[in-house]
Design brief:
46% of the residues lie in helices and 15% in strands. It has a 5-stranded antiparallel sheet with strand order 1-2-3-5-4, with helices on both faces. The longest helix has 22 residues. The N and C termini lie far apart (45 Å).
């Protein structure tokens, strides 16, 4: 959708737009930042054409689901946007929400010139927020449609959900791996799920709110690095905390080198524990589950970059395959090695600035 069309639809619903710009990203939504004649700064989220599904969990996406996630996370104490209106104009559905203050976490780090102190402080704040999310109890595991509606219905052992999620990774991998390679991965996944099944079905684990998709450009922070907004929650899940923590390792803790990874993880869990978070990253089952989830994520990267030839990512599939082989053989994920592959594109520094 072009900017003029978005502005026309917003005006049709009475918003009196005086300025508007489009965000240059958004896989499932077309997102516009606009200002009205009375000085309100707002965000419009339009559904792209097509039957859009969650790329990680295969759940059906909808603006209603977005609204429910804002309400659920907001009730837990997280800064989420207030919904101004849900509209349909000329057959196009869109959601208008308040524009949250702050800057993307990545921009914050750049502004702070990659200061180690600023980086660790921001992660401690984030840990506190994630503990609030994990305190939300949900009826079963799956895609959150609303607080009381989770799909598929009645999944009370996360191992069932885990098997489904890994199956989504295996289906495309069968087309790019050799028969022998695919057999090794499939066997590893099956054995690991089976080993975890009894523990994941025990009363040690219960469904909680998991944000799942936090990365450097999809949450906002203030000048101190404290989260000021979570505008992109459409992939959020009813899951176990390991589903959150493995992504933290891939996306945020590994932003720099291994020594900084260790400091980042400690800072995050300091904030998490202080806010009542109960996840133990040293627990055997949690470590095993994190490694398995990392293996699934890395397999998707092997598949996704297979055949890419653009002068930058030509070897990425092979590099991710080596990382996958190591996590399957050792049971430990090399988070920084994964980030180092991506670093070839992002150009983020390997070391933070002291202090």
């Amino acid at each position: 959708m072009d900017i003029k069309k978005a502005q026309d639809l917003l005006n049709l619903r009475g918003y009196d737009v005086v300025s508007i710009s489009q965000f240059p990203f958004g896989r499932n939504r077309e997102v516009f930042d606009f200002t009205t004649a009375d000085g309100c700064s707002l965000i419009a989220r339009f559904v792209k054409e097509g039957n859009w599904r969650d790329m990680q969990y295969d759940g059906l996406l909808s603006l209603e689901r977005d609204m429910n996630m804002y309400a659920l996370a907001g009730a837990a104490g997280l800064p989420t946007p207030r919904v101004i209106g849900y509209h349909d104009a000329e057959g196009v559905s869109f959601l208008v929400v308040e524009k949250l203050p702050g800057q993307h976490w990545k921009a914050f780090l750049e502004k702070e010139e990659y200061s180690l102190d600023a980086y660790l402080r921001s992660l401690e704040y984030l840990g506190s927020d994630i503990a609030k999310a994990h305190a939300v109890s949900l009826p079963s595991y799956g895609d959150i449609i609303s607080h009381t509606s989770i799909l598929p219905k009645g999944v009370t052992n996360f191992a069932v959900r885990l098997e489904h999620l890994l199956g989504l990774k295996l289906a495309p991998a069968q087309k790019v791996l050799s028969e022998g390679e695919f057999a090794v991965v499939r066997t590893y996944f099956s054995k690991e799920v089976l080993a975890l099944e009894e523990d994941l079905g025990s009363n040690r684990y219960h469904p909680t709110l998991i944000l799942t998709n936090l990365h450097p450009t999809n949450f906002l922070v203030d000048e101190q690095g404290k989260p000021s907004g979570y505008p992109d929650l459409e992939f959020s899940q009813a899951g176990v905390p390991a589903l959150e923590m493995y992504n933290m390792g891939l996306q945020l803790f590994s932003y720099f080198d291994q020594p900084t990874f260790d400091l980042a993880k400690k800072a995050f869990f300091d904030g998490y524990a202080a806010a009542g978070g109960v996840y133990d990253p040293k627990d055997r089952t949690n470590k095993q589950l994190e490694a398995l989830l990392c293996a699934g994520h890395t397999l998707s990267s092997v598949t996704g970059y297979q055949g890419v030839r653009d002068g930058l990512r030509d070897t990425w599939s092979a590099e991710f395959k080596h990382i996958l082989e190591r996590v399957m053989s050792t049971g430990e994920m090399d988070y920084v090695a994964f980030a180092d592959v991506i670093r070839q594109k992002t150009k983020q520094p390997k070391q933070p600035k002291l202090p």
